[in-house]
Amino acid sequence: xxxxxxxxxxxxxxxxxxxxxxxxxxxxxxxxxxxxxxxxxxxxxxxxxxxxxxxxxxxxxxxxxxxxxxxxxxxxxxxxxxxxxxxxxxxxxxxxxxxxxxxxxxxxxxxxxxxxxxxxxxxxxxxxxxxxxxxxxxxxxxxxxxxxxxxxxxxxxxxxxxxxxxxxxxxxxxxxxxxxxxxxxxxxxxxxxxxxxxxxxxxxxxxxxxxxxxxx
Length: 216
Fold this sequence. Notes:
Glutaredoxin; 2 domains; globular
């Protein structure tokens, strides 16, 4: 049985979503962020030395990193679902998008978050951060020009991976100029499996605006 070591309001929400999409049984072990620092509690280091979320355990196997967890789950438990056929050109797209989400797209968004906390000290960095944010969101926007999904005509696990990028971008007000990303995010957040994961995962401030407001 897979156990999701679930930190509130974190990337582990999309692992719950993945498991709901695949109808794979799982347990949730909950962890709460520190009310002052917003950091994960030290108890998570008992699962993995980094003490970060997401992390899953599957028997004696411990897996960290969103992309690795998703690939592990779909490969070992997914029975070919939510992944394009490996002989299809869409599999290459899928693989690239799966790693792009955290490897490239999240960096300028996270830098924007940290720069906002630094205030005036970060002013010299802000133009570069903004230009990189626009560049990456524009790239993602263009990928949806002829398709509703990122890796071809079908919903795949990379849409789950990229949805978190869209949620963070929306939280910073970046999606107003990217209607395809906004539409993709809206459709993803209406999926029954997403809503089931949201109900099971607890408060998630990057979720659908109406539900976020209801929990705030």
